[in-house]
Amino acid sequence: MLSATGIVAGYRRGRPVLDGVDLGVAPGEVVGLAGPSGCGKSTLARVVSLLHRPWAGRVSVDGTVVTRFRHAAPASLRTRVGVVFQQPRLSVDPRFTLRAVVAEPLLAAGADRATAAETVAELADRVGLTGELLSRRPHEVSDGQLQRACLARALAPRPGYLVCDEMTAMLDASTTAALVRVVLDHVRDTGAGVLAISHDESLLAVWADRVSRLGGAGRPGAGGGQQEPPMTRGTQSA
Amino acid sequence: MSDQTVSDQTVHDQAVGGQAAPLLTVEAMSVRFTLGRPAARRVFARRAAGRGEVHAVTDVSFALRPGQVLALVGESGCGKSVLASALLGLLPANARLRGRAVLADPAGAPVELLGAPEPVLAGRVRGRLVGLVPQSAATHLTPVRTAGAQLVEAVRALRPAVAEPRALAEALADRVGLPRQALDSYPHELSGGTVQRVAVAMALAGDPPVVLADEPTTGLDRPLVDRTVDMLAELADQGRAVLLITHDLAAAKRVATHVAVMYASRLVEIAPAGQLFTEPWHPYTGMLLDALPDGAFTPIPGHPPELTALPSGCAFCRRCPDVPGYAPCTDDPGLIRVGDRWVAAHPPC
C-alpha cells in the first residue's frame, strides 16, 4: 500500500497547497485523482513519489514510513515508486538518446550493460518504440514518442507503484489510448498500484477503478477522497 | 490529381451561390524543410542520409467561410502547426512553399499569403486580417508588463485611428469575459484560463475577419477547454471565420462546424462536423475517433510515418491496411469530392 495521511505541503511559508489530504493506493488498484487546475494534484503526486517533503503528515510505502525525501530517499524506496510527468521534454536529459533515457534507472541500480540492453529492448517493445527511434535524441522525436520513452523509463525498475501526473495531457487520442493500455498491462502483470492524475474525467472513467477528487485550496473534495464504485475491468488483483 | 481536385473546388465555390464567399482559400499548398546546412550534411553524411527533406504539408486545399469553425485535427507531428505558421509567414528560412493561399480583404485586394513579402504580412495580415490565438498564452505574453498594458499596446499598434485605446481594450476584455481587475495583473498572477482570455482579446484587437487558433487549449482542464472553444465559436457566430488547430477531438466535437483530418502531411478527410463524427469515411478518421476514452479506447497500431520518408499513395494503409467497415483503398492520396464532403483514397461506393 502506498499511503499518504494528513499531508500538508506547499512551496511558500504560510501558504499550504495541500492541507490535510489523505490518499491510499493498494497494489493492483488504479486510483484516479481529479480536480480543477491549481488544486494541488501535482504537488500530491510529487509528495507520494518522494520528490517533495511534506510539512506535516506521513507517507508510507508498503508499511515503511518515509522519513527522507528527494535525493536523500533510500534507493530501495525510490525505485518502488515510478513517476511519469506531464511534459516529457522537461523530464529527459536532452543529450541522452531515448535508449539511454530508458536504460538510466537500470544502470543506476547497478545492472550490467547486457542485462540493461535486454530490458530496454523488451520495454521499448511494450511501449511501441522501434530500435530506430531509440537511437534518436529527444529533439528528434515527437512529444508522443518521447512520452513513450518516459513511461518505459518509469517501468524499467519494475516499480510497485506508478504515479502518472497528467501523463497524457500533451498527447493525441491514439497515443493516450496506447500508453494507458501499457500501464493497465503493467498492473495486470505485476500487480502494481497506480495513481492516475488527470483532469479528463472521461479518461479516468475508463482508466481508474475509483476516482478521488481534490477540491479547491488543497482540501479533499466532498466526502474526503470520496470513492466511486470500482469499474469492472478485471485488473483488481489484490 | 491534385490540380484536378483544386479546380473542382474552385468551381464548387463559385457554383454554390447560397454560401458566403470564402475568406481564406488554400490551394495545393505544400511546405518542405531542408535539414542541416550543406557543409554539415557532408560531414555527417551518415546521419543526414534519408532525412534530408521534411514533407511537413503536402497538397493541402480547403476553403474557410465566414461563420465556420473549421477544426484541423490529427496526431501530433502530422504538420498541423506548420500549416498555421505558413499561413502567417512565420516559418524558418529553410522552408520552401508551393501552392496558393488567398486571403480576402474586405477593404482591398485579396492577399496571396504564401508569396507575400514580410512588410505585407506584418503590415496588413498579422493581427489585422488574421488574428492568432497562440498555443501557450502564458509564454506569449511578456512577464514584466501587465495584461492590460499589453492589450492597450496591441490596440495602439493595430488600430492607430482609435482615440481611446484603453476604452477599446476594456471593451475587448468585456467581450471575452475577462474581469477588469485582470487587466492590472501580471501574466504570472493570472490562471491559465484567464491568460488564455487575454490572448484571445489581443487576437481580436485588430478586428480580424479570420481567427487562427493553434492548439489554444493545451494544458487547460476540461471546463477551461470548453470555455475557450465556446469563445471561439462565438467569434464565428459574429461572422468571423475560425481555423481551430487541435489534437483534442472532444473540443473539436463541441464547437466545430467543419472538420479537416490531417495525416502524415496531407488532409485525408474534410466534412461537416456532424457527418464526420457520426459516419467517418476515411479509416484514419474512424480509428482516431475509436481511440477516444468514450469510444472504444483502442490505439491505432504502429506509428505515423516519418515526414522525411513518406510513402507514396495512401500513407495510412501502409501503417494499418484493410480496416474493416471502410471503402477499399484506391491508393490515391488526392482528395475526392462526394457531395459536400471530401475524402482521400476511400470514396464510399
From TrEMBL, chain A:
<dbReference type="GO" id="GO:0055085">
    <property type="term" value="P:transmembrane transport"/>
</dbReference>
<dbReference type="InterPro" id="IPR003439">
    <property type="entry name" value="ABC_transporter-like_ATP-bd"/>
</dbReference>
<dbReference type="Pfam" id="PF00005">
    <property type="entry name" value="ABC_tran"/>
</dbReference>
<feature type="domain" description="ABC transporter">
    <location>
        <begin position="2"/>
        <end position="238"/>
    </location>
</feature>
<comment type="similarity">
    <text>Belongs to the ABC transporter superfamily.</text>
</comment>
<dbReference type="GO" id="GO:0016887">
    <property type="term" value="F:ATP hydrolysis activity"/>
</dbReference>
<dbReference type="InterPro" id="IPR027417">
    <property type="entry name" value="P-loop_NTPase"/>
</dbReference>
<feature type="region of interest" description="Disordered">
    <location>
        <begin position="216"/>
        <end position="238"/>
    </location>
</feature>
<keyword id="KW-0813">Transport</keyword>
<keyword id="KW-0067">ATP-binding</keyword>
<keyword id="KW-0547">Nucleotide-binding</keyword>
<protein>
    <submittedName>
        <fullName>Peptide/nickel transport system ATP-binding protein</fullName>
    </submittedName>
</protein>
<feature type="compositionally biased region" description="Gly residues">
    <location>
        <begin position="216"/>
        <end position="226"/>
    </location>
</feature>
<dbReference type="InterPro" id="IPR003593">
    <property type="entry name" value="AAA+_ATPase"/>
</dbReference>
<dbReference type="InterPro" id="IPR050319">
    <property type="entry name" value="ABC_transp_ATP-bind"/>
</dbReference>
<dbReference type="GO" id="GO:0005524">
    <property type="term" value="F:ATP binding"/>
</dbReference>
TrEMBL record, chain B:
<feature type="domain" description="ABC transporter">
    <location>
        <begin position="26"/>
        <end position="289"/>
    </location>
</feature>
<keyword id="KW-1278">Translocase</keyword>
<dbReference type="InterPro" id="IPR027417">
    <property type="entry name" value="P-loop_NTPase"/>
</dbReference>
<dbReference type="InterPro" id="IPR013563">
    <property type="entry name" value="Oligopep_ABC_C"/>
</dbReference>
<comment type="subunit">
    <text>The complex is composed of two ATP-binding proteins (NikD and NikE), two transmembrane proteins (NikB and NikC) and a solute-binding protein (NikA).</text>
</comment>
<keyword id="KW-0067">ATP-binding</keyword>
<keyword id="KW-0921">Nickel transport</keyword>
<keyword id="KW-0547">Nucleotide-binding</keyword>
<protein>
    <recommendedName>
        <fullName>Nickel import system ATP-binding protein NikD</fullName>
        <ecNumber>7.2.2.11</ecNumber>
    </recommendedName>
</protein>
<dbReference type="GO" id="GO:0015833">
    <property type="term" value="P:peptide transport"/>
</dbReference>
<dbReference type="GO" id="GO:0005524">
    <property type="term" value="F:ATP binding"/>
</dbReference>
<keyword id="KW-0406">Ion transport</keyword>
<dbReference type="Pfam" id="PF08352">
    <property type="entry name" value="oligo_HPY"/>
</dbReference>
<keyword id="KW-1003">Cell membrane</keyword>
<dbReference type="InterPro" id="IPR003593">
    <property type="entry name" value="AAA+_ATPase"/>
</dbReference>
<dbReference type="InterPro" id="IPR003439">
    <property type="entry name" value="ABC_transporter-like_ATP-bd"/>
</dbReference>
<comment type="similarity">
    <text>Belongs to the ABC transporter superfamily.</text>
</comment>
<dbReference type="GO" id="GO:0005886">
    <property type="term" value="C:plasma membrane"/>
</dbReference>
<dbReference type="Pfam" id="PF00005">
    <property type="entry name" value="ABC_tran"/>
</dbReference>
<dbReference type="InterPro" id="IPR050388">
    <property type="entry name" value="ABC_Ni/Peptide_Import"/>
</dbReference>
<dbReference type="GO" id="GO:0015413">
    <property type="term" value="F:ABC-type nickel transporter activity"/>
</dbReference>
<keyword id="KW-0533">Nickel</keyword>
